[in-house]
Amino acid sequence: MSEKIVVIGEARDGELRNVTFEAIAAAKQIQSDGEIVGVLCGKENLEQQAQEMIYYGANRVVTVAHDNLETYTPEGYGQAVLAVIEAESPGGIVMGHTSIGKDLTPKLASKLGSGLVSDAVEIQTDGDEVTFIRPIYSGKAFEKKVITSGLTFVTIRPNNIAMSERDESRTGEVTAKEVDITDLRTVIKDVIRKASEGVDLSEANVIVAGGRGVKSADGFKPLYELADALGGAVGASRGACDADYCDYSLQIGQTGKVVTPDLYIAVGISGAIQHLAGMSNSKVIVAINKDAESNIFNVADYGIVGDLFEIIPLLIEEVKQLK
Ligand SMILES: Cc1cc2nc3c(=O)[nH]c(=O)nc-3n(C[C@H](O)[C@H](O)[C@H](O)COP(=O)(O)OP(=O)(O)OC[C@H]3O[C@@H](n4cnc5c(N)ncnc54)[C@H](O)[C@@H]3O)c2cc1C
Fold first, then answer.
1. Which CATH architecture has domain 4-176?
2. Residue 60 class from Cβ within 10 Å (0-12 exposed, 13-18 middle, 19+ buried)?
3. 10 Å Cβ neighbour count for 313?
């Protein structure tokens, strides 16, 4: 493999997502002494974001600014990133396994005639051999993959690979590359956000998730309070979304978001297999349920059997006292 790895950065509301820094750390694991080249796309003002990539370990960054890159489209970003990859000829490419990463990387892999290891949660190295570990069967098992030829093209699941310390003394070159972004088949006219502001669910270190047991949209309010006190985000089961207690953008599971926070608090959630598919790899799981036989306790590290409406206010009080 050549010494160079391209890391495709991703921003949200003008700020780089943490998974970009995790991707830089992953690139370092794959090729500890190789050159890490960041790529950033957007409409304008990418210099600050490029600096951040350098502070987190990129050796240099190539930016592509164009009016047609204001919001993500597979054709627009595809053209921009491909132009950089073709100019750089890297041995590896790393990106976050985010909605954009899931959409963009297979397209790039097909254009480059390359394979792709998606959704890696761990990277192991033994001499020159790099092994990627990824969950399969909805997180019930893990497979190990080794790339034997061609590009090392990989997406990494957010929140699994520790990013390096931010270091403002790191320096590196930022180059702007001109790419003509043409023939877009789709043009984004406007973006209307459904999800509320605050911590991004897929990158949150702490998630307080509510289920049908929460019983109403009002019942979710204390969950927001607890999540706020813990610096985390609120998630939900599909049962709660179907019942209209919260928005579908909060849904965790097989047909929702896949999350791996340090702490997952499941509140009034029974633990259906489709829900577990989205959260069972969380580092510590706490379940609060009034039914001691509930399946959620089979994956929980800590279980509280009782009425959530009594337990959540007590937890909020305790957490606030710790501050
Ligand atoms: C194809 C398919 C895809 C699906 N995808 C998803 C998915 O992505 N995510 C997902 O979550 N589900 C998904 N589901 C739905 C899934 O099968 C379950 O129906 C759903 O997860 C149940 O949600 P729940 O646990 O909130 O509700 P329930 O199963 O109704 O559980 C509610 C729980 O709350 C507890 N409870 C009630 N009152 C209290 C109280 N006062 N205090 C404490 N505990 C209380 C109860 O004991 C119960 O365990 C999918 C289903 C299908 C068929």
1. 3-Layer(aba) Sandwich (3.40)
2. middle
3. 13
User: What does the pLDDT average to over 247-258?
Assistant: 94
Nearest atom (ligand 1) to Cα of 256? 8
CA 246 – ligand 1 centroid, Å: 14
Structure tokens at 280: 């069972």
Task: Name the CATH topology of 201-322.
Answer: Rossmann fold (3.40.50)
Instruction: State the distance from the centre of ligand 1 to the C-alpha of 198, rounded, in angstroms.
Output: 25
Q: What is the pTM of this model?
A: 0.84
Distance 293 CA to ligand 1 centre (A): 14
Residues 126-168 have pLDDT tens digits of 988 999 999 998 788 999 999 999 999 999 999 999 999 999 9
* Residue to mutate, 138, 254, 304, 312, ligand 1, most ligand atoms under 8 Å from C-beta: 254
Fill in the amino acid letter for 312.
Answer: I
